[in-house]
User: Which sequence fits this backbone?
């Protein structure tokens, strides 16, 4: 019986019959065209993170700092890190590769995508590499310099939301007000009033 079945299968495949007769023709494949986001001159050439992407960038940085600090604490039994240890972890975190982040267009809006950010759509193109890793690293070092290692580590010890609030929200935060991916309108400084 098996040799007969094997012969029928071979002949059916060679002749192109058998499966279609039994199951019907396969459904027609639909084609989709997905293009990469078109970058503005600022998005292509500026050494700085574009204003419209700073909130996403801040969230990515907060996520990475939180992850690296959590891992370092896990190695010492979830105890608080010494000052020299958390300073080293923060420096290493900001100097990491950042290659897993890139630009994606969702519903006509350009957004950063990568670990710790809103979920990526399955049928989109993400532009990674290029200026994004350098911009994220520069922003990360800026946050550590502005806020200070001790304040960042203290916020981490209070939880991920506290670290995100410290870096991304508040008076100077990239996510304070405005739309989800963008920054709030710039506030006038005391000298401008």
Assistant:
């Amino acid at each position: 019986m098996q040799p007969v079945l094997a012969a029928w299968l071979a002949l059916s495949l060679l002749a192109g019959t058998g499966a279609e007769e039994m199951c019907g023709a396969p459904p027609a494949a639909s084609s989709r065209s997905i293009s990469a986001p078109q970058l503005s001159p600022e998005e292509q050439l500026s050494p700085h993170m574009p204003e419209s992407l700073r909130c996403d960038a801040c969230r990515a940085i907060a996520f990475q700092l939180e992850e690296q600090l959590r891992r370092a604490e896990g190695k010492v039994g979830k105890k608080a890190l010494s000052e020299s240890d958390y300073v080293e972890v923060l420096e290493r975190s900001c100097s990491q590769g950042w290659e897993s982040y890139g630009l994606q267009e969702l519903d006509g809006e350009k957004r950063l995508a990568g670990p710790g950010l809103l979920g990526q759509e399955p049928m989109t193109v993400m532009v990674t590499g290029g200026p994004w890793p350098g911009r994220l690293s520069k922003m990360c070092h800026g946050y550590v310099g502005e806020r200070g290692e001790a304040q960042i580590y203290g916020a981490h010890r209070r939880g991920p939301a506290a670290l995100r609030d410290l870096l991304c929200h508040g008076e100077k935060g990239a996510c304070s007000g405005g739309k989800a991916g963008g920054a709030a309108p710039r506030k006038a400084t005391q000298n401008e009033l």
User: Anything to note?
Assistant: Helices lie at 2-15, 19-23, 41-45, 54-75, 83-94, 132-147, 149-158, 160-168. Confidence is low (pLDDT under 50) at residues 4-11, 179-193.
